[in-house]
Amino acid sequence: MTQPLRIGIAGLGTVGTGVVKIVRQKANLLAARAGRPIQIVAVSARSRNKDRGVSLGGYGWEDDPVALATREDVDVFVELMGGADGPAKAATEAALAAGKDVVTANKAMLAIHGQDLAERAETAGHVIRFEAAVAGGIPVVKALTEGLAGNEVTRVMGVMNGTCNYILTRMEEAGLPYEDVFEEARQLGYLEADPNLDVGGIDAGHKLALLAAIAYGTQVNFDAVELEGIQQISIEDIRTAANMGFRIKLLGVAQMTGRGLEQRMSPCLVPADSPLGQLQGGTNMVVLEGDAVGQIVLRGAGAGEGPTASAVMSDVIEIARGTRLTTFGQPAHGLEIARPARASAPAPYYLRMRLIDKPGAMAKVATVLGDAGISIDRMRQTRHDDTTAPVVIVTHKTARDALDSALRYLPGTGVVQGEAVAIRIEDV
Ligand SMILES: NC(=O)c1ccc[n+]([C@@H]2O[C@H](COP(=O)([O-])OP(=O)(O)OC[C@H]3O[C@@H](n4cnc5c(N)ncnc54)[C@H](OP(=O)(O)O)[C@@H]3O)[C@@H](O)[C@H]2O)c1
User: Fold this and answer.
1) What is the pTM of this model?
2) Where are the domains of the chain?
3) CB 117 within 8 A of CB 79
């Protein structure tokens, strides 16, 4: 029989135990698909005695993931510990230096060190695959790298953090403020130990940077992603947006423009009846647009044991079959850093502000917008108290710079109480 592919797994948490289960439960199916058996030879985690709900019998054990990564009898090092640096990076580098291929689910490590690791791998003639790092079970890395290889990619968009989508959906459904739903999500165990990775848009930003590198043939550049989280989204904005036929999503968009590569992860209004607007709860969605293919919509579980382990296994099987792809779909040494472009492609904006109730207040706001070259599409005044009136304005398409300039002048009118909220309306 053909030689088995021997894997070593570092990290036996949610994803690692999921991978062990698939290898144990589907050995025949995997061998048939891969053309050779997939065999776990050894594993590593922090605590050897923890009950992980799966048998580890028959596998070697290493306390040190670097020792696992460099074992003679390991062909593929499967890194499922997490963290941009520390043991994940040390063990991945050691594996590549020791002549192993690497499979990882670690978006943080790849978003920051991906270029260096890809160069190391390709210099040594090895591969790094990372399907599970972006949108969990959705095979979006393979879709972009292989399925759309004949296209010029025109735009990549995605809702890629299930926790943020859960929070925004739940706020709308239950009419609860952000703080209450955030606490609920924490109690349900949906948030990372550092919640800012989720609600600050960082985790989703890592994923967007990886997709942009593949889509546009550029070095992964997470530092250039414009990041804005969902912490400022109020129940008032969610309600008002819903009344106007929109939903608010933490949306990632990457597109190459004449000015350079735009990468932004920020709350956006999308039409409630669009595929992205319909996305509820913890599900992820990635929208890919290519010049030949048009638009493709991929939807599915972005996290969890089964979906993420499914993606890890797709990479393991790819290697077992003998398919050897470059990390980002082109040789890493040839990749250049794209000029980062601030996201300034014109778009309509939603503006919410509280106007002091005195004659001419609205006219003053309209003048500031008009002076900045911004025209108003729709305007609505909602509930009114004794002294102020909440006003919502939807602008026609305008450049972000023009909007920022108007926002700077609004306080000087003396008729706007507090800060105006501005949210981009994405054409999806
Ligand atoms: N969970 C998801 O749904 C999901 C989705 C997509 C991508 N990912 C990515 O997949 C990776 C793993 O995530 P996870 O949710 O499975 O994490 P997790 O449940 O926290 O598990 C992490 C595992 O790594 C082990 N570990 C940590 N430090 C170690 C060290 N120094 N030496 C050896 N082992 C060490 C831990 O050991 P102990 O168990 O002994 O503590 C644990 O088994 C991360 O990169 C994450 O971003 C996760």
Assistant:
1) 0.95
2) 5-138+325-333, 140-299, 349-425
3) no
